[in-house]
UniProtKB/TrEMBL annotation:
SUPFAM superfamilies membership: Phosphofructokinase
Record GO biological process: canonical glycolysis; fructose 1,6-bisphosphate metabolic process; fructose 6-phosphate metabolic process
Sequence segments annotated as region (Disordered): 712-734
Pathway(s) served: Carbohydrate degradation; glycolysis; D-glyceraldehyde 3-phosphate and glycerone phosphate from D-glucose: step 3/4
Required cofactor names: Mg(2+)
Residue ranges occupied by any Phosphofructokinase domain in the UniProt entry: 3-273, 353-638
Pfam families associated with the record: PFK
GO cellular component, one term: membrane
InterPro entries for this protein: 6-Pfructokinase_euk, ATP_PFK, PFK_vert-type, Phosphofructokinase_CS, Phosphofructokinase_dom, PKF_sf
Identification of the protein by name: 6-phosphofructokinase
Gene3D superfamilies reported for this sequence: 3.40.50.450, Phosphofructokinase domain
EC number(s) stated in the UniProt entry for this protein: 2.7.1.11
């Protein structure tokens, strides 16, 4: 329905049947192709009466509304009034009386589309991640000029009533200060901020970044503008200061891979919810909790969202932050811990030394994870040591103590500043044990991929022989392949997905105006098909060949035949993704030649091997944020384990003292490496069960294949306030 509720009321050509071709090739387009409009007339019963008439006339009794809390509130009122509106239409003679009975109830399902992420009940709204991409692109560009000129930049981002964008972008770029509507600075903030900025300059930091939400206020509910902050910095410190207001740049541009996948998953859940609806089903909203799509009561979510504003108006800011949800609360807590260093005399020393090491191939976001761990460790009173060049460097003693300032500016840098290698510790156990003893290392944090997991297993097995390894060890998954057992996500995978998706968009665009063409694109991932499958979903691929789902020549022939049929319509381009190790014999060259031969006269074929560009580049906002938060939580776990153990000679020998930290569905879990052995396929270096395989049929359905979608996970309406995680974990917030 073009023009939102306006189109619903006007009817006629504004309500049209959507066919397959209507929604082809729109994944990469920002905004909404059907248009949206604010509509005051729909607030009146008269307006809703017109809308009801236009729907009944076409026999429509299911409505999926994508919008913010205003749109969803309107949809719920419309649903409640539906029967009364139909009876009124029948009395007026506009519809037949039997139509009142025939269309007696309206099903409503909401999906939240809002860049502000201001809707309670969901960890992420559709559009938020893309807006963060726009902000971080600008911040990264500003950082280079700010460093060159030694400047302070005040950046104003959107968020009139919600500070999510400001908070997460501050977390993702390591901003010096952030101003939010929900959490105003304490009285006297002017002096505190200026002190922090001057301290940073004294430590030779060449730039200062201050991020301001457009609705930022002080504790008396008075607005804090970016201009006011600039004047303060110039007058108090004399720093060269510039203001940048991002404005509607944040709403535009191409959707990120995360948003495309999120919207696709939410769309499916919304349709299933509508199909399962009955007269007793209350209006629901499809939300994201951790890594799971859930249905929540729409009315309660709207009420809670409105309660946030009420709490802010009443200056009850602690309540406002709590109501925003666990994602916002967690981000705020992490930002405060990482941005503001307490004076040394205020930190209780633990007398413990904690080491951090990167293992495996580089992944974007590793540096954010190291920065976070170092700063949380220092705040907890530990001495923090960084190990260079993986287990090789560990054995050679390439170990250095890190200070708070040593990791400044690391968040946005790609690759691994510490250096990382695939070498396993097995060959160097004696030397590594000696280094642990000589540096008095009491705990180890490993950031890495499958090699890091194998390395932990080797260290666990060597505990009997080497007492030095009887210390708490925890692994944070970081690999573009996303193949670590025990976690749905790995640091670096989102950046790689965005690289592949952007490349697919460009490749498809390169064929515009030419004859019909099919592209075969090879992705990384070893034997894990995550990148091929998810980028296929994000880029609108026709097929994705992966190791986890064996295929043969008949499947290839079927795919070619399917594409030949599609090319007879208005569709001009095809996209096929292939995981690098999906088959020994059906190589990228073979598939390209097969498609070229079988498609003769209908389409031609081109191939692209993306290679190591998938490991490079600046980390995406998701990877910066995820790396920062999960690493901070890993350090907190280490602190809990070490509490009271120093000087007691305590040896950590239990399985639960050597763990992998990961997200599983909606829980954040510390799982012992021994326990995860039964979940891993060591020959192919992948987990035996992978959550994203359930999305395979979705990609096929969207590519116009006839297949069934597994709805076993789709559920009934859940309470807005669930039990806090499972018995083994804590709630995970994306």
């Amino acid at each position: 329905m073009p023009k939102g509720y306006q189109g619903l009321m006007e009817g006629g050509s504004n309500i049209v049947e959507a066919k397959w071709e209507n929604v082809s090739s729109i994944l990469q387009i920002g905004g909404t192709i059907i248009g949206s409009a604010r509509c005051n007339a729909f607030r009146s019963r008269e307006g809703r009466l017109k809308a009801a008439y236009n729907l009944v006339r076409l026999g429509i009794t299911n409505l999926c509304v994508i919008g913010g809390d205003g749109s969803l509130t309107g949809a719920n009122i419309f649903r409640k009034e539906w029967n009364g509106l139909l009876e009124e239409l029948a009395q007026n003679g506009q519809i037949e009386k039997d139509e009142v009975h025939k269309h007696s109830y309206l099903n409503v399902v909401g999906m939240v589309g809002s860049i502000d992420n201001d809707f309670c009940g969901t960890d992420m709204t559709i559009g938020t991640d893309s807006a963060l991409h726009r902000i971080i692109e600008v911040v990264d560009a500003i950082m280079t000029t700010a460093q060159s000129h030694q400047r302070t930049f005040v950046l104003e981002v959107m968020g009139r009533h919600c500070g999510y964008l400001a908070l997460v972008s501050a977390l993702a770029c390591g901003a010096d200060w952030v101003f939010l509507p929900e959490s105003p600075p304490e009285d006297g903030w002017e002096e505190s901020m200026c002190l922090k900025l001057s301290e940073n300059r004294a430590h030779k930091k060449r730039l200062n970044i201050i991020i301001v939400a457009e609705g930022a206020i002080d504790s008396q509910n008075q607005p804090i503008s970016s201009e006011k902050i600039k004047e303060l910095v110039v007058n108090q410190l004399g720093f060269d200061t510039r203001v940048t207001i991002l404005g509607h740049v944040q709403r535009g541009g191409t959707p990120s891979a995360f948003d495309r996948i999120l919207a696709s998953r939410m769309g499916v859940e919304a349709v299933i919810a509508l199909l399962e609806g009955d007269p007793e089903t209350p209006a629901c909203v499809v939300s994201l909790r951790g890594n799971q799509a859930v249905r929540l009561p729409l009315v309660e979510c709207v009420q809670m969202t409105q309660a946030v504003q009420k709490a802010m108006d009443e200056r009850n800011f602690h309540e406002a932050v709590r109501l925003r949800g666990r994602s916002f609360e967690g981000n705020l807590k992490t930002y405060k811990r990482l941005a503001i260093k307490q004076h040394d005399d205020k930190i209780t020393k633990s007398n413990c030394n904690v080491a951090i090491i990167n293992v495996g191939a580089p992944a974007a976001g590793m540096n954010a994870a190291v920065r976070s761990a170092v700063r949380v460790g220092i705040a907890d009173g530990h001495k923090m040591f960084a190990i260079y060049d993986g287990f090789d460097g560990f054995a050679k003693g390439q170990i250095k103590e890190f200070s708070w300032e040593d990791v400044g500016g690391w968040t946005g840098q790609g690759g691994s500043i510490l250096g990382t290698k695939r070498t396993l510790p097995g060959k160097h156990l004696e030397k590594i044990a000696e280094q642990i003893r000589s540096h008095s290392i009491n705990a180890l944090l490993i950031v890495g991929g499958f090699e890091a997991y194998l390395g932990l297993l080797e260290l666990a097995a060597a505990r009997e022989k080497h007492e030095a390894f009887c210390i708490p060890m925890v692994m944070v998954p970081a690999t573009v392949s996303n193949n670590v057992p025990g976690s749905d996500f790995s640091i670096g995978a989102d950046t790689a997905l965005n690289t592949i998706t952007d490349t697919c968009d460009r490749i498809k665009q390169s064929a515009s105006g030419t004859k019909r063409r099919v592209f075969i694109i090879e992705t990384m991932g070893g034997y894990c098909g995550y990148l091929a499958n998810m980028s296929g979903l994000a880029a609108g691929a026709d097929a994705a060949y992966i190791f986890e789902e064996p295929f043969d020549i008949r499947d290839l022939q079927s795919n070619v035949g399917h594409l030949r049929e599609k090319m007879k319509t208005t569709i001009q381009r095809g996209l096929i993704l292939r995981n690098e190790s999906c088959s020994v014999n059906y190589t990228t060259d073979f598939i390209c030649q097969l498609y070229s031969e079988e498609g003769k006269g209908v389409f031609d074929c081109r191939k692209n091997v993306l290679g190591h560009m998938q490991q490079g580049g600046a980390p995406s906002p998701f990877d910066r944020n995820f790396g920062t938060k999960i690493s901070a939580r890993a350090m907190e776990w280490i602190t809990e384990k070490l509490k009271g153990s120093q000087g007691t000679g305590k040896k950590f020998v239990d399985d639960d003292s050597i763990c992998v930290l990961g997200i599983s569905k909606r829980d954040l879990l510390f799982q012992p490496v021994e326990q995860l052995k039964k979940e891993a396929d060591f020959e192919h270096r992948i987990p035996k069960k992978q959550w994203w395989l359930k999305l395979r049929p979705l990609m096929k359905i969207l590519a116009k294949y006839k297949t069934s979608y597994d709805v076993s996970d789709s559920g009934k309406l859940e309470p807005l306030h669930p039990n806090q995680g499972t018995s083994d974990g804590e709630p995970a917030a994306i």
